[in-house]
Fold:
Amino acid sequence: MEPSIDTTPSHEDIERVVLGESEIADIVKRMGAELTEDYRDSNPLIVAVLRGAVVFVADLIRAVNCPLEIDFMAVSSYGSAAKSSGVVRILKDLSNPIEGRDIVIVEDILDTGITLNYLIKNLESRGPRSIEIATFLVKDVPDQRSAVRPRYVGAHVPDAFIVGYGLDYDERYRNLPYLGILKPEVYS
Ligand code: PRP
Structure:
């Protein structure tokens, strides 16, 4: 991925900005237009995955120009901080049944795919009409679950520690308005 051309001043813990505010805005606008085109007549249910997707989904729904509804799920995957075990647990479930609905799962990042793999299977069992994934980022990692095929992708990012725009390290940096690579000394 090319270095960001955005001139946003960055936090002292950030090694480099990978997507600046204006680049993020362009991506969100493009994804919003794609969703508008595909869901014009179906009143989709946008399912945002807490907590990382909160910033992205708030921007994304405002870039969609057709009726939609929004709900939230929270999940946690177990394992060490570095390596997930693949066991996922629902911490907060949807408020309503989704039978017959067109679902768009909105994520901030697809990494190993464990979270989305679980969510797709879980939501499929509830009888929706369709399920698609909109993820702001796809991390280019070798062992991604192949079953997860996002229809809407914002950008691909390198296999580095990326924070900001909803993504955290130890619950920090979610509020940075841009995406950056964290300096290794912060987490090592
Ligand atoms: C992050 C991110 C995705 C998931 C992606 O969530 O928001 O949900 O990891 O990783 P995967 O593809 O390897 O499953 P996290 O569990 O860190 O929680 P958060 O959203 O509250 O930050």
User: Anything to note?
Assistant: The chain has a mean pLDDT of 92. Helices lie at 21-38, 54-62, 114-124, 184-187. Strands lie at 14-19, 45-50, 69-79, 84-92, 102-110, 130-139, 152-157, 162-163, 179-182. Residues 4 and 32 are 22 Å apart (CA to CA).
